[in-house]
């Protein structure tokens, strides 16, 4: 049996793809991998270590923080600060950016945006959760980095990925040259290459959306859901509805089997629910690099202007053909509304 290639070995081999980085990006990715292994250890024994349940605090979005949310956030801050390659961390769990520049990292070239534990409310019921991360090059050239360095469009990402803590723990990432997946081998404590050159199927038979909010969805989304439910042998419909409640879990399944994940606007969240900087942009980068598509129902996610740290957006993401079909229904609904308005 051929010897498994570890994440560290793979990153070193690919370092030549980033002549401008001089090894900093490689070290930064390794730091993220180390923090992920620490978080994985605590996730797997959360019930034994009193790490389940709410912490009694809320994050900037007003959502209850889980104990593991806080723990994971602290681990990534510690790892990135000690590594010295990152000057700013933007996290779902912090209202403001976290300055990491020390004597070691005063001239650090990279910004990291992160959702330390996506789907953490699922911890108590033993459902998969994960970490989403995004890496940008700092834009300013002198002084301390600022919030403006963080508020970059998704097309400026130099790397992005996610870690899913499930029946096995996987780290999936891209640096703009394809997507590769690494599975944690607990016997040696290393992420090993298990899914080289990952490609998302062009179409699928699974749609993921919280249908409990159906009555609050835009008409285009309602029409697409009905389309998914209609029997049609040629297109393998009806499609199956699968919704975990963790963006990473639903999208990782789509990466392997094909599918679409939708989190649209609703009456309660007219700007969308998921965050652009540290959820939608990084996952869009990964999905696009795997051959998929990610939009807000009309516009490419990674080309949206970023105006605030915790900015929200609707998202349609997954297999290219499924996202395109959903966009058709969104466009038709807009046209119908416009024609009715003119008629009125």
Commentary on this structure:
The protein is α+β, with helices and mostly antiparallel strands and 344 residues long. It folds into 2 domains: 7-195, Fructose-1,6-Bisphosphatase, Chain A, domain 1, CATH 3.30.540.10; 206-343, D-Maltodextrin-Binding Protein, domain 2 (3-Layer(aba) Sandwich), CATH 3.40.190. It has helices at 7-14, 24-44, 67-83, 147-150, 219-229, 247-257, 276-289, 320-343, and strands at 54-58, 64-66, 86-91, 98-99, 110-118, 129-137, 157-165, 169-174, 179-185, 190-195, 206-208, 240-241, 260-263, 274-275, 293-295, 312-313, 315-318. The protein has an 8-stranded mixed sheet with strand order 4-3-5-6-7-8-9-10, sandwiched between helices. A 5-stranded mixed sheet has the order 12-11-13-17-15, with helices on both faces. Strands 1-2 form a two-stranded antiparallel ribbon. Strand 9 (179-185) and strand 10 (190-195) form a beta hairpin. Helix 2 (24-44) packs antiparallel against helix 3. It is globular, with a radius of gyration of 20 Å.
